[in-house]
């Protein structure tokens, strides 16, 4: 599996998130063991709807200040290719909701805003997360 490092762009609800520093995506579903009344052990596992938690750190704190908690939209990230790959990755998350904005100011360092989003499948057969090879 290739590792991609350079985030070329990030947008949320058609707003450019300038100066992206890092993106962290956690996709998970909670297991629910299922079994009959007479079963000593679970006989199957069902999963809850997928939940995605996303954290993006950006250097443009003015953009972060213009966003509103509860704002929803498509979150898109473009990642540059590695030396061995011709194309990077395009990641999109539909129905992402902004649930947190944190500002970090350090002595002699650029300010950074951490934006926290969450997204959940509206229906059991859909996943708000999509990743594909970027078009050149």
Strand content is over 45%
Question: What is the count of distinct domains?
Answer: 1
What is the element string, with H for helices and E for strands?
A: EEEEEEHEEEE
Question: How many beta-strand segments?
Answer: 10
Provide the structure class: mainly beta
Distance between the termini: 20 Å
**Unreliable residue stretches:** none
Helix content: under 10%
Task: Give the overall silhouette.
Answer: globular
- How confident overall, as mean pLDDT? 85
Rg of Cα set: 18 Å
**Count of helix runs:** 1
| Biggest sheet character | 8 strands, antiparallel
Outline the structure in words.
With 136 residues, the chain is mostly beta strands. The chain has one helix and ten strands; from the N terminus they run ββββββαββββ. The chain has one helix at 61-66, and strands at residues 7-12, 15-16, 20-28, 31-34, 44-47, 51-58, 72-79, 89-104, 112-120, 129-133. The strands form two sheets. Strands 1, 2, 3, 6, 7, 8, 9 and 10 form an eight-stranded antiparallel β-sheet that branches. Strands 4-5 form a two-stranded antiparallel sheet. The model has no long low-confidence stretch (mean pLDDT 85).
Helix-strand blueprint:
Layout: E1 7-12, E2 15-16, E3 20-28, E4 31-34, E5 44-47, E6 51-58, H1 61-66, E7 72-79, E8 89-104, E9 112-120, E10 129-133
Antiparallel strand pairs: 1-2, 1-7, 3-6, 4-5, 6-9, 7-8, 8-9, 8-10
What would you say about this model in short?
The protein is mainly β. It contains 1 helix and 10 strands, in the order ββββββαββββ. It is globular and about 65 Å long.
Features:
single chain; 136 residues; mainly beta; 8-stranded antiparallel β-sheet; 1 helix; 4% helix
